[in-house]
TrEMBL record:
Protein name: Integrase
Keyword terms of this UniProt record: DNA integration, DNA recombination, DNA-binding
Pfam family, one: Phage_int_SAM_4
GO molecular function: DNA binding
Length: 320
């Protein structure tokens, strides 16, 4: 007797895992596909096509008033559903598109950045130091493994960053000693976990099958592990995941309030500040592009607008 066919959303999860997408992407795509089906009164996507996709995306832009990035996220989820699961090609989607705002990112002065960092406590302060000192995105910093930190060459390898790209950035010398001490404590915790029969960590792609014992090795452990162990939603193993983003985000907001900043900042502000301060120090835009991992230099060029000087170092006539 053949087993019953898998439900559509389970098929979506299988296809996402086959392509080694992040668990966060899996949850996001499944959420959008579910919303799409409910929007069309639970019709099966096989019975729908381009017109229904356009109607849903237009609804998001007009009625939902979502941002352009949110609408693009929904479109990516639906295109994945049709191309990778239903094996149907969808092209020429012509929906009302959400307007993409032209904005200049918020940037802290060096003094403001240091003041906020000093107001953060414990492990959160060390994380934020790396966001500012190495130009990391928050999730990149939290996903760092022990093997990704090279103290000898004072560099950090960011693996599978945005767009599944890897890059190398600097390890600030002022943070190295503190990070070493932190890892001594993390290693002690890992040894205690192993002695209790735990100590595993989730591994990327198929490494867990290829190297069955690698998930207990020290080099694969997270640099910033969680204080508690949880069950991995994919493998079912009880393991120690990395710190949750929300803890760092709350610490940054509390620190910003404590120093009475009038700017609205978040964790990503430190990455913006990293790039802008390097530009101020005279580093060329291509070097900064590589450190940030931007695919196109046009993305990096936004920081020249932050400085209000473009490529010509324009000064106000009042200052001449």
């Amino acid at each position: 007797m053949q087993p019953p066919p898998k439900k559509l959303l389970d098929q979506v999860r299988d296809a996402i895992r086959l392509k080694h997408y992040a668990y966060r992407t899996e949850e996001t795509y499944v959420q959008w596909i579910r919303r799409y089906i409910l929007f069309h009164n639970k019709r099966h996507p096989k019975e729908m096509g381009k017109a229904e996709i356009e109607a849903f995306l237009t609804y998001l832009a007009v009625e939902g008033q979502v941002s352009a990035s949110t609408q693009n996220q929904a479109l990516s989820a639906l295109l994945f559903l049709y191309r990778e699961v239903l094996k149907l090609e969808m092209s020429g989607i012509d929906a009302v598109r959400a307007k993409r705002p032209q904005y200049v990112p918020t940037v802290l002065t060096k003094q403001e950045a240091i003041a906020v960092i000093q107001q953060c406590d414990g492990i959160y302060q060390l994380v934020v130091k790396l966001l500012y000192g190495s130009g990391l995105r928050l999730i990149e910093g939290l996903r760092l493994r022990v093997k990704d930190v090279d103290f000898a060459q004072q560099q950090i390898v960011v693996r599978d960053g945005k767009g599944s790209k890897s890059r190398v950035t600097m390890l600030p010398s002022s943070v190295a000693a503190e990070l070493r001490d932190h890892l001594v404590g993390v290693q002690r915790q890992h040894q205690r976990d192993l002695s209790r029969g735990f100590g595993t960590v989730n591994l990327p792609f198929a490494l867990e099958r290829k190297y069955p014992n690698a998930n207990r090795e020290w080099i694969w452990q997270y640099v910033f592990p969680s204080s508690s162990m949880t069950k991995d939603p994919r493998s079912g193993l009880v393991c120690r995941h990395h710190l949750h983003e929300s803890g760092v985000q709350k610490a940054v907001k509390q620190a910003a309030r404590a120093v009475k900043l009038t700017k609205r900042i978040g964790c990503h502000t430190f990455r913006h500040s990293f790039a802008t301060h390097l530009l101020e120090s005279g580093y060329d835009i291509r070097t900064i592009q590589e450190l940030l991992g931007h695919k196109d230099v046009k993305t990096t060029m936004i920081y020249t607008h932050v400085l209000n000087r473009g490529g010509k170092s324009v000064r106000s006539p009042l200052d001449l």
